[in-house]
Amino acid sequence: MSQLRLLPSRLGAQASRLLAPHDIQMFNWRSRSSGPPATFPSGKRGGSSSYMEEMYFAWLENPQSVHKIRGHHVAQLDPLGILDADLDSFVPSDLITTIDKLAFYDLREADLDKEFQLPTTTFIGGSEHTLSLREIIRRLESTYCQHIGLEFMFINDVEQCQWIRRKFETPGVMQFSSEEKRTLLARLVRSMRFEDFLARKWSSEKRFGLEGCEVMIPALKTIIDKSSEMGIENVILGMPHRGRLNVLANVIRKDLEQIFCQFDPKLEAADEGSGDVKYHLGMYHERINRVTNRNITLSLVANPSHLEAVDPVVQGKTKAEQFYRGDAQGKKVMSILVHGDAAFAGQGVVYETFHLSDLPSYTTNGTVHVVVNNQIGFTTDPRMARSSPYPTDVARVVNAPIFHVNADDPEAVIYVCSVAAEWRNTFNKDVVVDLVCYRRRGHNEMDEPMFTQPLMYKQIHRQVPVLKKYADKLIAEGTVTLQEFEEEIAKYDRICEEAYGRSKDKKILHIKHWLDSPWPGFFNVDGEPKSMTCTATGIPEDVLTHIGEVASSVPVEDFQIHTGLSRILRGRADMTKTRTVDWALAEYMAFGSLLKEGIHVRLSGQDVERGTFSHRHHVLHDQEVDRRTCVPMNHLWPDQAPYTVCNSSLSEYGVLGFELGYAMASPNALVLWEAQFGDFHNTAQCIIDQFISTGQAKWVRHNGIVLLLPHGMEGMGPEHSSARPERFLQMSNDDSDAYPVFTEDFEVSQLYDCNWIVVNCSTPANYFHVLRRQVLLPFRKPLIIFTPKSLLRHPEAKSSFDQMVSGTSFQRVIPEDGAAAQDSERVRRLIFCTGKVYYDLVKERSSQGLEEQVAITRLEQISPFPFDLIKREAEKYPGAELVWCQEEHKNMGYYDYISPRFMTILSRARPIWYVGRDPAAAPATGNRNTHLVSLKKFLDTAFNLQAFEGKTF
Which ranges carry the Transketolase-like pyrimidine-binding domain (predicted)? Predict the structure, then answer.
């Protein structure tokens, strides 16, 4: 008799990593009948083989571990029966139980009926402690090789693996009451008949319907029901367009007439935002969950066609909702993300989002991911669309269990979804439900899929819909009658028809019905709209002084800081005493003053705690104690709002999307994302284009997110110079040819009408004011700030407390205040500029002694364009040539934006000449000498008072 040890030797090092340590334990395969132990293939008996060889063959003879690890490879997952979910038709020999296989191990058919002692690591026996080998194999195959395929043995946590085994191996766990089955059938009826109704009424419209995966509706409702039962009060969903209308109708429970009205071709564009299609819009709804009889809030976040782009946005919004509710463990607020199989595998933002899942300042304490696995992406076969066996393999990087399930087995789907919701609540970790289904129609309803997948779609055309399959099953077992089934269909059809009638009678739709994050009470005061005014952004001097003192101290005892940091803190103290601020201290005072007023501030990005240029130092690190930190900003006042500053993962796309979602949750917060260098926003361009620039136009989605983009030509090369201001200005919606009417509230109303605000501040005080204005405005707009690099420590880039105290405010334009302004009639040239180049111009003007002949005016707010102030400045210098000077190349930067606006405001009577670098392909040179030569060249041109004489515009 021999007790054999269990070890995954056959799979080598990979399997050794996959199996948890608790799998390497004693497994008693002793037969109750007498007889010698089995002979190993090598011919050696168990007692005489070497220890390692014995373990090796023990692994071969252990069906439990083989099924747990690899059973999903042979599970019957494809409803069509033609594809392998893992793209591989090979069946591991370990999983084949044949006479030849038995003979290989010196076993005979009769041995299958011998009983064996069950190990403690399995739950297949239930209350039984011994089973025949035949029954052991049958139960393992039933658990791991049928309509559910489980991937979880890569998780290196004993408790978690045992939890999953218990949920799936225990006999009888997938038993449903008659009432549960009837509810499931009713949900399938609603899901399928909704799609049928749309197909009948709007056969030539794109709907991106759910046909082929109708089970997704009861799947999502099960996750929500189970989560509500466990205390969840708020569920935030993100999904692509396939099935979105069905989710809105049957999960969120949006009024059907509101959906049907969106199909009306006569619906005015004003009622649809910019006319964004109905299967991209979001929704917010508070209702009673009828299963748990508890209140629940459901929010479906609007998203573009960029599929997975919504993932980090949902996570950020979820994190914010948890933060404002004090839900640190995610027991009240959760997220559900729905994915397509090709997008889940193909889009990198999925990976970026997964890697935020366990980071302290980004975790949402687990997300349920539901993959609608169409087994095709657009027209691309999955074998051409991914290199991994499954589309879900990306989830393995965070040890998320993956539950594959045949979507034509509704009960299996519902059970898996229930377990997924329990997993998320129990372990606060991500989990993936892979609904292996098919797409009954093409990529959309107008598509012909037979062009590219003829064999698949021949089978699909023969495929019996899941509703009929399940209804026939319940009718056969007597759970429902045919009459009850037909009555359920007729009832929902009547609901749809009545809603269709109402949608034609009432043209009451407005985009507000599609908001995913309403801000009740923000836009109104006592029921009346807020006035279009903005209070002064200055603050009392004693508040500035107090913040400066805290910023220059370490408010924790026995805390050892770096000696270099001590010098920085002393410098802050000195500035506070002399009533001056640099860039970093101005930011500190803006944040601190908002915290005093109860405004939560969150700053996120790479290196933001210290600052890429080592200027910020908002988090102090004890030099003697590992991971002991101090955030002085959180020690300003006893009852202040919290300050969150967090270094992000090395991600722009995912993190910017996350912060955008965070800013959606509440208007009473300042949420900022800082790029390590301004041009790094390139890899987050999708979020900028699809959500930030167009959010209000497409979805009436106000958002106050702030982008801090370090920018400036410093001779550092093309990769670390330009934040590409031309791109942001090109997407600004103010009209260059429209001459504005200068009303009393022009400044604020202009901000209200724009899609975002673009600034390039040249003083710390103006940076301070624009941050505070962002929160004090009666509405929210994204704010793009081109922040400096060399100006962080430039001796001239300092501001006085006098420019920040009560009564002061942001200056859209900073006019000339030197000698030239004293006698404007004598000024021969007026140079307009923005940002850092101002200091280069001032230095050059001084060196040439032209202070009285050349005036320099700074444009601080570039978009929306300050027409009124520019007009005033130009009129102040009637005899001066007008010049626009920028350090960026002519085809970049600001010139193409400001030039037509100057012509509009000056009625084309006076030209504005360009001075700057010549057009180029790259934003900057990497050669220091070339940089200095080009700088000297355009500065010489700027102050050559004969440069434009005789030239025509």
Answer: 581-794
907: left (phi over 0), alpha (psi -120 to 50) or beta: left
Between CA 913 and CA 906 the distance in angstroms is 13
Alpha carbon distance 352, 331 (integer Å): 24
DSSP H helical segments within 528-684, as ranges? Answer: 541-551, 563-577, 583-596, 653-665
> Last residue of a domain, which of 92, 126, 147?
147
Q: Tokens 């410093």 map to which residue?
A: 714
Report the C-alpha gap between 938 and 952 in whole angstroms: 20
Would residue 780 count as lying in a domain?
yes
Residue 4 forms beta bridges with which residues? 27
β strands within 362-513, DSSP E: 367-373, 402-406, 431-436
What are the φ/ψ torsions at residue 683 (nearest 5 degrees)? -80, 0
d(CA 337, CA 427): 18
Q: pLDDT of 233-285, one tens digit each?
A: 999 999 998 899 999 999 999 889 888 887 876 665 444 444 455 666 778 88
Question: What is residue 258's predicted lDDT score, i.e. its pLDDT?
Answer: 84
The confidence score (pLDDT) of residue 153 equals: 93
Structure tokens at 230: 């466990």
Query: In terms of domains, do 785 and 835 share one?
Result: no
Question: Are the C-beta atoms of 306 and 690 separated by less than 8 Å?
Answer: yes
Domain endpoint, select from 132, 147, 162: 147
For 41-77, the DSSP string reads TTS-BTTTS-HHHHHHHHHHT-HHHHHHHHGGGGS--
Residue 823 belongs to domain with CATH number? 3.40.50.11610
Residue 742 covered by a domain: no
* 200 in any annotated domain: yes
DSSP annotation of 688 reads I
Q: What is the pLDDT of residue 286?
A: 87
- Could you tell me the strand order of the sheet in which 294-300 lies? 148-151, 402-406, 431-436, 367-373, 333-340, 234-238, 294-300, 283-289
Query: Which secondary structure element, helix H or strand E, spans residue 419, and what is its range?
Result: helix 410-427
How far apart, in whole angstroms, are the C-alpha atoms of residue 538 and residue 751?
Answer: 19
Q: Which strand (E) or helix (H) includes residue 298?
A: strand 294-300
CATH of residue 620's domain is 3.40.50.12470
| CATH number for the domain harbouring residue 496 | 3.40.50.970
Pairing of strands 813-814, 854-859: antiparallel
Angle ∠(875,877,881) on CA atoms, nearest 5 = 110
Q: Which residues of the chain have a pLDDT value below 50? A: 1-61, 269-275, 508
Cα dihedral 926→928→933→939 (10° resolution): 90
What is the residue range of 496's domain? 178-514
Peptide bond into 864 cis (omega under 30): yes
